[in-house]
TrEMBL record:
One of its GO terms (cellular component) is microtubule. The keyword Kinase does not apply. It holds the Pfam family Kinesin. The keyword Thylakoid does not apply. PANTHER family: KINESIN-LIKE PROTEIN, KINESIN-RELATED PROTEIN 6. This is Kinesin-like protein. GO terms for molecular function: ATP binding; microtubule binding; microtubule motor activity. Its main location: cytoplasm. Transmembrane segments: none annotated. GO terms for biological process: microtubule depolymerization; microtubule-based movement. Keywords: ATP-binding, Cytoplasm, Cytoskeleton, Microtubule, Motor protein, Nucleotide-binding. Belongs to the TRAFAC class myosin-kinesin ATPase superfamily. Kinesin family. KIN-13 subfamily.
Length: 489
């Protein structure tokens, strides 16, 4: 049977030492490929109760599973496929601090799955295949090369519809140590930016690409993506406008990513790649012969219940629309992937008792499909409408901002041309026999043109300023509504 195009896994991170010390509760249970989240709630009459949500995935990974075990069961088979010409994409989605970086890139004590893939690749590929790396980051819709001093990059679509990231460095690596050194340089560049540019890793998507070439022709590609923190997409109630705008961009890219994966699984002809910078640059990875692994990372801590639920719902939506064929293939793969017993995992990893296919209905309020499609964070309807309006306005502002910058540039060019005319005029007036009426008329014309240009730009600016103020008002309304709602709960 054909391998599934998409595998959706969820990984639970353990409580941190700090959380244990604070007495926080672990509210997530992994049983086979099922994740159960029990959220402590309080009713209006102050009685406490537990709300239970059950989700079923291709793989559910508990807190005892190491990166090596995860790699062996889910990623290693894909590495082999990459050598055989398949484009592989692995991405981690989840709240800040839920374990995305830990899974993808590792930390000082633990190796990430990209490193494990590299070890295998260097062992498996024949000498005729060369390996190279690119590593870049998307921050505020801008691309930065992590292997070249964070040079800003531009993504362009060529005549054949292929997206090319102009200037992206691709470093050829001959052995695993060289590979690790190169990626480490990129990780350091990301960390330095966090400290110096007031940037926060949870607000950027990091994309590490390993390219396999034979006689200079790309034959396979593996992309490991550490996404921005999913909760960042809901920064509507943030006080800083730029943070809200960044949040809207992150929200847009995560929703577009979900749409692209769904379209990919349904073999749709039209895939909405242009929906965001992230999906635009990943277009190539999602077309043709490709396979994707999504790892939703969740915290087990009760105070993160809301965010964990949102991640579980997002992952559930990604796999929900799977075609019957690919669903069968995924089930088959899940059985084949059963982890060897030497791994200290729950042994029901894949072939445990068959769990319910869909999520248990939330008992307090229902979400309809449209709501989940449009925002990541679920709120009651009224707030959602405000959020929708806010989102729409942010998109408008982003477009207007780009248009304003272009108009400003054109304005400067026009002013330079008129200033040249000004200078010529003055030179002519300094000539003997010049006619004062001509000079006055001409100067009047040039000045009127300049005033016209300034007025035009000013009115565009005025409109933009008005929309910024509207956004501020709308955000305040969202905040008020959000806090009122919290108070009621
Ligand atoms: N499965 C795990 N087992 C043990 N520790 C983990 C696990 N997942 C995450 N951690 C620890 O939790 C902390 C947060 O993880 P990590 O930095 O990977 O989060 P993140 O989702 O990448 O956050 P951000 O979006 O801010 O980059 C780290 O200290 C990490 O070592």
């Amino acid at each position: 049977m054909e391998a599934p195009k998409i595998i959706v896994a969820v990984r639970k991170r353990p409580l941190s030492k700090k959380e244990v010390k604070e007495g926080q509760k672990d509210i997530v249970e992994v049983q086979g490929n099922t994740v159960i989240l029990r959220e402590p709630r309080v009713k209006v009459d102050l009685t406490r109760f537990m709300e239970e949500f059950t989700f079923n995935f291709d793989a559910a990974i508990d807190q005892f599973c190491s990166n090596e075990e995860l790699y062996k069961s889910l990623v290693q088979p894909m590495v082999q496929a990459a050598i055989n010409g398949t484009k592989i994409t692995c991405f981690a989605y989840g709240q800040t601090g839920s374990g995305k970086t830990y899974t993808m890139l590792g930390d000082q004590n633990v190796v990430g799955i990209y490193t494990l893939a590299a070890f295998d690749l260097f062992q498996m590929v024949p000498n005729s295949i060369s390996i190279s790396v690119s590593f870049y980051e998307i921050y505020c819709s801008k691309l930065f090369d992590l292997l070249n001093d964070r040079q800003q990059l531009v993504a362009r679509e060529d005549a054949k519809g292929q997206v090319i990231i102009a200037g992206l460095s691709e470093c050829k690596v001959n052995h695993v140590q060289e590979f690790l050194k190169t990626v480490d340089m990129g990780i350091k560049s990301r960390v330095t930016a966090q400290n110096s540019v007031n940037q926060d890793s949870s607000r950027s998507h990091a994309i590490l690409q390993i390219n396999l070439r034979q006689s200079n022709k790309m034959i396979g590609k593996l992309s490991f993506i550490d996404l921005a923190g999913s909760e960042r997409g809901a920064d509507v109630v943030e006080h800083h406008r730029q943070t809200r705008i960044d949040g809207a961009e992150i929200n847009k890219s995560l929703l577009a990513l979900k749409e692209c994966i769904r379209a990919l699984d349904l073999n749709k002809n039209h895939t909405p790649f242009r929906g965001s910078k992230l999906t635009q640059v990943l277009k190539d990875s999602f077309t043709g012969n490709c396979r994707t692994l999504m790892i939703g990372t969740i915290s087990s801590c009760h105070k993160d219940a809301e965010h964990s639920l949102n991640t579980l719902r997002y992952a559930d939506r990604v796999k929900e629309l799977r075609t019957p064929q690919s669903s069968n293939a995924a089930d088959q793969l899940a059985r084949e992937l059963m982890l060897p017993r030497q791994y200290n995992l729950n042994n029901q990893f894949f072939d445990g008792p068959s769990a319910p296919r869909s999520i248990s209905p939330p008992k307090l309020f229902e979400l309809d499909e449209k709501e989940e499609d449009e925002i990541i964070y679920h709120e009651p309807n009224k707030n959602l409408n405000l959020k929708d309006k806010h989102e729409e306005l942010i998109q408008k502002i982003l477009k207007e901002e780009r248009a304003l910058k272009t108009a400003h540039r054109d304005h400067i060019d026009d002013l330079v041309d008129l200033t040249k005319e000004d200078m010529k005029l003055l030179q002519m007036y300094n000539q003997p026999n010049s006619i004062v009426e001509d000079y006055v008329d001409e100067l009047d014309r040039v000045l009127s043109l300049k005033i016209g240009l300034i007025k035009k730009l000013k009115s565009r600016l005025q409109q933009f300023k008005q929309h910024l103020m509207d956004e501020q008002d709308l955000s305040l309304q969202c905040q008020t509504h959000f806090y009122q709602k919290q108070h009621q709960n």
